[in-house]
Amino acid sequence: MKLSVFGAGYVGLVTGACFADLGHRVILADIDRRKVEMLRKGRIPIFEPGLDEVVKRNAKQGRLLFSTEQPRAVRESDILFIAVGTPSLPNGEADLSQVKTVAKTIGANLDGDKIIVNKSTVPVGMGDLVASIIREQKGGRHRFSVVSNPEFLREGNAVHDFMNPDRVVIGASDPKAAETVAQLFRPLNARITMTDVRSAEMIKYASNAFLACKISFINEIAALCDRVGADVNEVASGMGQDKRIGAAFLSAGAGFGGSCFPKDTLALIHVSEREGVEARLLRSVVQVNADQRKRMIEKVKEVVGPLEGRLIAVWGLAFKANTDDMREAVSVDVIELLRAAGARIRAYDPAAMANARKSLPGVAFAKDPYDAVKDADGLLILTEWNEFKEADLGRVKSLMRKPAIIDGRNIFDLKTVKALGFTYRGVGRSA
Q1: Those residues with Cβ within 8 angstroms of residue 19's Cβ, 6 or more apart along the chain or in another chain
Q2: Structural domains in the chain plus CATH codes
Q3: Annotated active-site residue in 18, 213, 225, 260
């Protein structure tokens, strides 16, 4: 099939590249000329394992094209995916301006029957709004259908997730359009859920908000474990064996971040309250996550003492491992709180250093994990990179001024670090 994807961010780039890898002709359209030129030169603007190979292979074979000419992308394709960003506005509402702009472009350049697929995360009712914008622009000349097809890609595993989906959700009022979109995914042997547009839109928000809820729940349990002497890892393991609960997203830590959970939870709160539904549980999820950042500072103070003038090494800046994404990263808030308390910071991340420099001006950056801990009064771990899990802790101890670890992701074995002579604080684990 002939496809176009509007937006070359995480979702758009992965979607376009993977559809091309399935044999379709894909135009990836973005208004950012610099980004498009990078892609044409074979340079990937984001860090995502496996994506580089897929993009280069399909670009070389002529199935994946990059363009800033959005009208061309409309005219030369039969199925148009909208995959632009929907960031949070100050009041928590989703900013839909990019989606609306693409809808106007599609409507103004519609030259035949098309299927428009909303891949962007949008609040309930956006499918109707996109349809009305296109209808207003096109003047009734051609038929089109709007389909909701929310994405469930995990950054750091996005290519794998696209090719091995848990489920594919397709929301449409036009059965023929729904089946056409479903055909794109049939080679993946995925479970395909067909529903209406508004239910599909709600599935995405409800899924992310529920996962955020699980994380905040286990972090609140971890705070209690700290007080009563229980081990949250053992608690989570015992809980996760219950099929009704499941083990996923029951890892206590410094809190959730990234481009989805914070934004989508806030957007769902906004929609709920706009419709007169109190979002008490969701508001608590957000508050617990904010409090978890403050708990990290208290843990640092427990082992380091007063922070004025102290050097704190930070391992991990991206919001999660296997990505360079700094959006809503826990590290930004935690480092700002540490600096406000007078601490000096030397930080390292395997992939996010370039982006972190933009988010954390004034922070010193190290060349590797060992450079980061040299003469440090404490080591704070905020991202669960494998590089950190395999670190030579004996060497780490010899380089530090004070051998203290605050493990914000519980990556180390408690007995091992204590046997090496470290003062250790995890999240919800006995000190």
Answers
A1: 3, 5, 26, 184
A2: 2-195 (3.40.50.720), 230-425 (3.40.50.720)
A3: 260
